Amino acid sequence: MSDRLTVLTSKSVFTGTGDLPFEGFVAVRGNRIEAVGTKCEVASYLTQADEVVDLGDRTVMPGLIDVHTFYTGWALRTLGSDLSGIADAKEAVSLLRAWKEDHPDCAAAFGHNLPETLASDAENANTAAVFDDCFGDIPVVCFTPGAGTCVLNAAASARYGFTPQACYAEKIWRMMSDFLALPEVRAGYSDYMSMLNERGVTAIKEMAFDDYYGFADEMARREESGELTVRVSMMSQPVGAGANLAYAREARERFRGPFVRFSGFNRMTDRGVWAGLAEMIDPYEDTADAGAAGKTVVEEPEWDLIENELRAIDADGFRYSLHCQGDGAVRRTVALYASLPRDEHGRMLRRHAITDLENSDPTDLVEFGKLGGICEVYPQILTLDRREDCLSMMRRQIGETRLLHSWNRRGMEDSGCTVCCGTDLPLLIPSLGESIYSACGGFFADGLPVNEVNTLTLVELLRAWTAGGAYDLMREDELGTLEVGKLADICVLDRDVFDLDYRDARDLAVDMTMSDGQIVFDRNKEA
């Protein structure tokens, strides 16, 4: 490790240990923070420095930590042949054949950027029929831009078992062993890390389905070769089978390095309140969608399975993150966590978490806080929708009163829960500016607010993106704040974030990112 000393000076240093920034410096030697101090303490470090970077009034802060990401989903956006701009299915066939010839060992032919017109409800079957005629028993899967929908032929349907409208990560697990083995998908992890670094992200909690279908070997190779610029905490999400504790034990022992760790399991419970698929405490409104009205849940989560898994996972020393969107699912999960062994202070022995919490009863947040619970929230989520497009659906499902309990980050913070930030990437791409706009301002995409009493302060959000994430990754002794001896994972914003109106936050950008003491993104040099 280099002994080189780099000194970053700024009028806005936010260490995460206090509430306000200060004019000062951060000194980095090798991959560690050697000193942090005020302007009047910097002189001796300037004389020793190999490099001094004067950042003016740009905020220097700890690197961001995204606690809910899916490389498996991100990879679908560029999987296989690029079909953008084609006019019809026959043109797609020509490109897919060429790709398959270049990949003779792959069981299927893949494509991305298939025009939406060829995957529409009216044309999907026709496009699939062309693929059937031209490829026979070779599976063909082509995703539309963003990989929200797809076209697949009969051979692909038989091999992989998902549908054109339900092709999200949890559904495509049978396909993972085929596409995660592709050289370009493995190489694409470099672009994935670059994208994260450009947004100030230096650590993630990655959802690695089942045993990661061979991709754990790629993570091991990259760490050994020193190629990683993002620290990765892998979580196994059981989809093909139940929680595989034997794999988890092996992975925990295998991944103990500075960049790759294995920490536990992740599982879905219910789905969105807006769609009437969440489990609620009280029944859905009479005006709710057909099938939901008068019920508390339409599709009952596998609570017996979840409880049995949780107890085994907890006993083996792993943590569990349960993805809950309705207040009923949150309540059930808090009760399950409360039934586990606890320490002398009544807190859970393991760092179990709840992800999303689209709607939650405040009393359950209080109980979760007492347990030492972690809330993994999506701070940018409101930016996906216009206000009334979202709220009109929510009101129809649960009414105005319960709507007040939606996106209640204020309640989580005030209840003593550890709040941290995820994006569900690729659903959202990490953006601190979008997070401030949405989670501090409470704004939807059209600039109209909702439940402003439920928002976080700027400092609380910055800590959630940093110290909260470090705690969730069980690495708070190394990451999450700018303190002497901690790893030098640092983010530099393009302005003083403390002099920013929430309404103007969306275009906030990252100017520089340091990972393990190395500058891995510099906007000025990129330009």
From TrEMBL:
PANTHER family: IMIDAZOLONEPROPIONASE, PROTEIN LONG AFTER FAR-RED 3
Transmembrane segments: none
Domain Amidohydrolase: 51-521
Domain of life: Bacteria
Pfam families (alphabetical): Amidohydro_3 (PF07969)
InterPro entries reported in the protein's UniProt record: Amidohydro_3, Metal-dep_hydrolase_composite, Metal_Hydrolase
One GO molecular-function entry: hydrolase activity, acting on carbon-nitrogen (but not peptide) bonds
Keyword Glycoprotein: no
Keywords for this protein: Hydrolase
Name this protein carries in UniProt: Amidohydrolase family protein
Organism, scientific name: Collinsella aerofaciens (strain ATCC 25986 / DSM 3979 / JCM 10188 / KCTC 3647 / NCTC 11838 / VPI 1003)
